[in-house]
Amino acid sequence: MNTVSTPRVEGFYWAAITFSQTLGTALGDWIADTGDLGYEGGALVFGIGLALIAALYFWTDVSRVLLFWAAFILTRPLGATLGDLLDKPLDHGGFALSRPAASAVITAMMLTCILLLPQRPGRHPGQARTVA
132 lies in a domain? Predict the structure, then answer.
């Protein structure tokens, strides 16, 4: 976040966040509500997209910035379809959980990921490597 240091850059940053949130949620709803995919199929499509991005990250030299933004954008429709899957009525293809129950499930999933997938500090590609 050191590069977000001017009002113009900050404005671009927040515009990107706002558009990705809005358009990503709309895309997730559109995929799930139209056609035959439903909420589970929509979540599967976006989950596969994220898995492909992860594969590109680990096994290619594709731009990390491009991969970050692609993953960032795909998490929005994935979240929308998973959220809808949890709280929509059974006759609409959901699990009919209440909003608090759906929020509890999502919170539990997030905490599980945080605990099982610990993060390590990385180094910026432009930084020189220090030898200890």
Answer: no
Would 23 be classed as within a structural domain? yes
In angstroms, the first-to-last Cα distance of the chain is: 27
**Alpha helices of 34-125 — where are they, by DSSP H?**
38-59, 64-87, 99-116
Per-residue model confidence as pLDDT tens digits over 44-95 = 999 999 999 999 999 999 999 899 989 988 999 998 899 889 988 998 888 9
Count of domains forming the chain: 1
Q: How far apart are CA 128 and CA 16, in angstroms?
A: 30
| Residues contacting 95, CB < 8 A, separation 6+ | 85, 86, 87, 88
Which tokens sit at 1? 């976040």
E-only strand ranges, 1-132: none
- Helices 38-59 and 7-33: crossing angle in degrees, nearest 10, is 130
Phi, psi dihedral angles at 98 (to 5 degrees): -70, 165
**Position 130 in a domain:** no
Q: Are the CB atoms for 76 and 28 separated by under 8 Å? A: yes
pTM for the whole structure: 0.75
Q: Please count the CA atoms within 13 angstroms of the CA of 38 that sit on its side-chain side.
A: 11
